Here is the input.
Amino acid sequence: MAVIQPSGLITGIKGVLGGAIYQYNGGGNIVRTRTSHKNQSFTRWQLRKTQLGYVASTWRALTDANRTAWEAIVASYPTTDKWGNARNPSGYELYIRLNTPLFEGGFTMLTVPIAPVAITAVTMSAPTFGGTIVISANWDVEFGARERLIIFAAPPCSAGVSHVSRAYRAITMTANIVARTLDINTAYVNQFGPVIDNSRVFVRGRMLNIDTGQERIFTYNSAVA
Here is the structure.
């Protein structure tokens, strides 16, 4: 997806031209490839679209007072555009951003926003393997009672691979464990199938505050089985 920064001559562009779609999404003008999802089975893309559609529909059910509360707090949740320029989201954008992970995790969605709080930063250590290639995810610090660590993993790949980007899938979620280690073998195999010897497994974490909907994404780590 390309991003367009307006100039003094071009202030905006919108519409469909050939195989491209030009639009403005609040973070700037963008151009993306026009794609078709015909003949797809019920994929992750379709599930995500359904989830976002549901969360968006609940915005319309809010009272005027609720929507005003979301608009009033946006300055507490600033973000940046593609060029690093600071911007505040709209109340609607913030509502979607905070409620989508809550809905996906099965937690109560917010009708009114809560002031942001600090999110525990954890480092995901390299996954470890037992004698039968039982995978454990590991992290470095304990986290709060109102936080959940969502563990993402990528399919097993060649041992020489040093980075994967879009291959990650959320496979499980956990509350704090004092030992700071979790057997993820069943969740991993259910998603990707068994791990074979000498393949590399990547894991990464995302912390979710189940009160505010805030998320914090952490860097990946990997190991060879």
In short: Helices lie at 44-59, 64-73, 91-105, 185-192. The two ends are 35 Å apart (CA to CA). The chain has a mean pLDDT of 84. The chain has three domains: 2-33, 44-105, 124-224.
